Here is the input.
Amino acid sequence: MDIEALKNAGVGAADLMALLESHSVEDIECDADAVGHEGLSAALAGFCERWQVGVKNLTKDGRGLSRNLIDTAGAYLEVDHQVAANLAHITQLARGGVHG
Here is the structure.
């Protein structure tokens, strides 16, 4: 298991979600003067509202994925350290170094 890759994927996902959140779809100019037609303006505004909802859902899910990746990397490290400590203890016992 490549723990560093898990951690990096989690951090990368968090960075991407922050970037997505820094740009609001609602900032797109939708008035009739900008697009040249009242009907097109209304359609674009509706599309942007739905798109913004999708972006919010995506970033929420992305933040959860990021947390899970980072937490998983941490759990693997914790288990890895515990296994290493147990093996060191077993090795020491096998060599007769610890008396209980």
The mean pLDDT is 89.
